[in-house]
Amino acid sequence: MATATRRKATFTATTLRLASVSHSYGALPALREVTIDVPAGTVCAILGPNGAGKSTLASVIAGVVPTGPGSVQLDGHDVSKLAHHARARLGLAYVPEGGALFPGLTVAENLLVGERGTSRQDRKAILERAAAVFPFLAKRWNERAGMLSGGEQQMVSLSRVLVHPSAVVVIDELSHGLAPGILEQLFAVLASFRGEMTLVLIEQYVKRAHELADQVVVLSYGQVALQGRAGDVTLAELEDAYELDVTEAGAPPASVGDPSPMS
Ligand code: ATP
């Protein structure tokens, strides 16, 4: 995964452009001509009901699934043809839904996967940076990641990315299954990194994502149903966009999924 890929270079936030990106699973179109510009150092929240295509969009940006028609551009360079690991080397980091930790490895080992060949001092520095972001880690280095709570695992997943400078970070459903108190901590950490990287946040926790974001995008049936500056879009407008059927075929109204996504 990108989170585990060793990157020697340091990165600063870069622009991310998705130009008319589409993706189909066999005959099923999951994304249809999605165009989004994310200026360097800003936060873009990708919202929408279950099945809207959010995770597919995250995977297309990260290069985990191939870009079909359209292009993914980093700082004006088309990376559509690059595999996931090649995009990671350009500073594109990805936290997939669930975090993708290695449950049988310790917390420290998870943070240092992909760091083979780096000096002992550099590995120590990585752990120190992680503990500076999430202090509880300092007492848990030797614990198996699979034994941590869901929230703690998500903190380890996040710190695997945040210990390295990144150009663009894509996080798929940080909030999935987590208690509100943990979520507040995670969002506070993300807010503290604002501007250091370009952040794409796939979220069901709409209210908090709206607060953090500079730009909000609602997907519906794989298409952009609403897009705007977060300050110009109200929660009510976001909620309405969840119900929009933007397909020409006129599919039935989308299910919001999470019974309290606006809370
Ligand atoms: P959720 O919030 O429930 O995760 P989502 O907005 O992330 O939903 P996706 O997971 O991207 O939506 O799914 C978009 C559409 O593509 C859905 O109809 C889904 O069933 C379908 N889909 C997703 N992954 C696959 C796959 N690997 N193979 C086939 N169809 C898929």
Can you describe what's shown?
The chain is of the alpha/beta class and 263 residues long. The chain has a domain at 2-102 and 166-242: Rossmann fold (3-Layer(aba) Sandwich). The protein has eight helices and ten strands. Strands 6-7-8-3-9-10 form a six-stranded mixed beta sheet, with helices on both faces. A four-stranded antiparallel beta sheet has the order 2-1-4-5, with helices on one face. The longest helix is centred in the middle third of the chain and has 14 residues, at 120-133. It is globular, with a radius of gyration of 18 Å. The structure holds adenosine-5'-triphosphate (ATP). Adenosine-5'-triphosphate binds next to strand 2 and helix 1.
SS strand fraction = 15-25%
Structural class: alpha/beta
> What is the count of DSSP helices, taking H or I runs of 4+ residues?
8
CATH top level of the domain at 2-102 and 166-242 is Alpha Beta
The strand count comes to 10
Overall outline: globular
**Which consecutive residue ranges, at least 5 long each, have pLDDT under 50?**
1-7, 251-263
- End-to-end gap: 32 Å
Percent in helix:
25-40%
CATH superfamily of the domain at 2-102 and 166-242: P-loop containing nucleotide triphosphate hydrolases
Molecules bound to protein: adenosine-5'-triphosphate
CATH fold title of the domain at 2-102 and 166-242 = Rossmann fold
SSE pattern: EEEHEEHEHHHEHEHEEH
Give the radius of gyration. 18 Å
